Amino acid sequence: MPKVTKNNHTMTVPRRLSDFTATLSEGSKESESPNNAPIPAQRGRRRSSLLKNNLRDSIAIKDLTGEEGVRARKFDLDGDGLLDEAEQAMMRYDIDGDGNLGLEEIHAIVSEHLRAKNNIGALRKVIAGLTCFVVILALSNLGTSLASAILVKETAADQRTSEMRIIGSVDVVGTQSSAETFEALEMDVETRRARRALVVDSLKANPFGEHAHRHLARSADCTGKKCDKDIKFDTNYMTQDDAERMKAKCELGRVVNVKRSFPGGSVDTKSLCRSGSNIVIKQIEYLYRRSSSVLKCRKKTYMIARKGPRKKQGKAAIRKNGFDMVVISDGKDTTFDCDGKNCYISGSNLRQKHGEPCNLNHGSDDCEAGLVCVQDANDVTSGRCLSDWNNGIWYVDWVNHKCVQDCVGGPNCGGDSSFWEEEFATYQLCCDTHLSYLTGGYKQCVPDLDFYLGKGQDCSNSRTCRNDLVCRKSALNGSDRWYCV
C-alpha cells in the first residue's frame, strides 16, 4: 500500500477498493462484541433506507447480462441485489472494470464534483441578476403608476379639442402630429338650389359689391372669358358642431383636411388648415323675439312662435348662434356660412382643377373658372372638370324656359352667359337638371334641336354628318344636293 505523509504523520492509503474493504473487515473483527450487530449490517440498513427513497433510479442486478452482473455485484455494497444511484455512479467511474476505484478514477469523481460546484455558483449569480432586474422593473412600473396618478390630478381633457390641458391653465400637455379629416356632406337638390338662389339674388342686387361668394379674378395680364369671374357657390355642408371642432383645431395650428365624395365612387381630400393658416371669424348674433301667431324671420333676427299652455306662451326658443368663418391656407380660401345648425361650405379651395372629379348635376359650380363638368367616358354617373368651350356651353334661359348655348347669332344661342349662370357641357344635362318638367322631350327644351344635331344641313361636299345622322341625296327631282337626315 502507498504511504502519504501529511503534517509529519504517515498513513497508508489502499490502492484498491478491496484493500480498503479488507481493512474495514479487520477493524470490525477487533471491535465485534456479542451485544453489537456487525457494522456491514448497520450500513446495509442505512443504504436500504436511501434506496427506498429512490427506487425509480435503482436497477436489478439479475436483469443484467452475465458479465455486467458480475461487475455490478462488486458494487452492491448492501447486498440487496439492486444498484442504487450512488452504486451505479461508482460502477460508471470504474473505467478498467476490475470492481475497484483507483486514484485516477477517484480524481475524475472529484473533478466532476468541483465542476458541478462551479456551475451551481454561476447559476446562483444568474438567478441573483434576474431577481435584481425584476425588482428594477417593478420599481419602474410603480413610478410610472405614481406619475400617471399625479398627471391625472393636475390635467383635464378638453372635450372640444380632445387635448390634455393643465387645470387652471391654457397650456396643452398632449399634442397631435397626425392630420384629422372631416367629411363634407352633399346637399340635397332643394337645399342646393335655395342656397344658390340666395347668392344670385344678392349678386343681382349689388353686382359690383363685396360678397362672401364672389371673387374677381381679373388682373392686368389676364384676358379671356375664364378671367371674367369666379363665383364660389356652396357645394357641400356639415353640421355646425363639426365646423366648431374644425375651427378649434385650426386655431391651434393643427393639420385639418376636408373630404368629399362624388358620384361614381370618387373621393377628393383638400387641406383646410395647418400651422400658419389665417382664420377670420364673424360672429352672427340671432335675436329671439316673442310672437303670438306669425313666424317672421330674417338673417340675424329670428322671431319664434309657439303654441301651448299659457305658462309657456311667448317663451323664446333656445338656439345656437351662427357664425361666418373664412380659412385661408396656401393662398386658397374656404368659407363656412353657419346658421346655428348646419354650415354651408364654399371657396376656391373646393373648386376642382382640370381632370379632377365633379358632380354632373352641379354643372360648372364644382370646377374652377373656365372649366365645366364633362361626363366621364368610362362611367356615365361621374364627371371630370375639363375645358369644353369648343363644343359650346349650355345654360338655362329662365325667361323662355329653354336650354341655350353660350354664344351669339345662332338659332340656339342665348348670348353670353352671366357670371352667376350654372353651365353644362351638354344640352341633355342642362335639360335633365333644371327643365325636366317640360313635356315634349329635348325638342321642347332646346330652341332648334334639329339644327344643333345637323339634321337637314347640306352635306353635298363632305358627305358626312354629325351625331347619328346619315348624308342622303335630296328626294327632289333634278336636285343634286345631299342633306343630313
TrEMBL record:
InterPro entries in the record: EF-hand-dom_pair (IPR011992), EF_Hand_1_Ca_BS (IPR018247), EF_hand_dom (IPR002048)
Cited PROSITE patterns: EF_HAND_1, EF_HAND_2
Organism: Cyclotella cryptica
Keyword Secreted: no
Chain ranges passing through the membrane: 126-152
Region of interest (Disordered), residue spans: 1-48
Lineage: Eukaryota, Sar, Stramenopiles, Ochrophyta, Bacillariophyta
Protein name per Swiss-Prot or TrEMBL: EF-hand domain-containing protein
Stretches with biased composition (Polar residues): 1-11
Keywords: Calcium, Membrane, Transmembrane, Transmembrane helix
Domain of life: Eukaryota
Domain EF-hand: 81-116
